[in-house]
Amino acid sequence: NSRMQSRIERLESQLVERDNLVSSLQERLRNSDSESMGSIQQLQKRLDDKEDELRQSMRKHREDLDAEKELYRKRANELRDEYNNNMRKTDVNAQELQVSLAKLEEKLRQSESNITEERMRHQEEIMDLERKRQREEDER
Q: Is the pTM of this model over 0.85?
């Protein structure tokens, strides 16, 4: 962009130089009777043609700059949208992981509760068997 901008500035500078040259030639025409009018008109036409060429070149460079700027703007928007989508997906994944973790924690609590109940039942059975053995022993 800066390269094209400096090119445009050079072209504008050349236009100013051309304008100065035109002014100088016009002044010489007024001050000099010896110069031929046809020759000055040819020079004027060549200068006008050159000026038109420079203006077209500047217009083309501006259009190129605008097109490049538009491409960068579009790419920036695409990257922003992609980033936002990735963040949304990350949030969804995090929420799903939290739900899964909560379910696993609940299963763990249930398992611990089942294990505790099972231990108590086994303890109860052991005590029952112990009492039964004791009664049988007492009966003998």
A: no
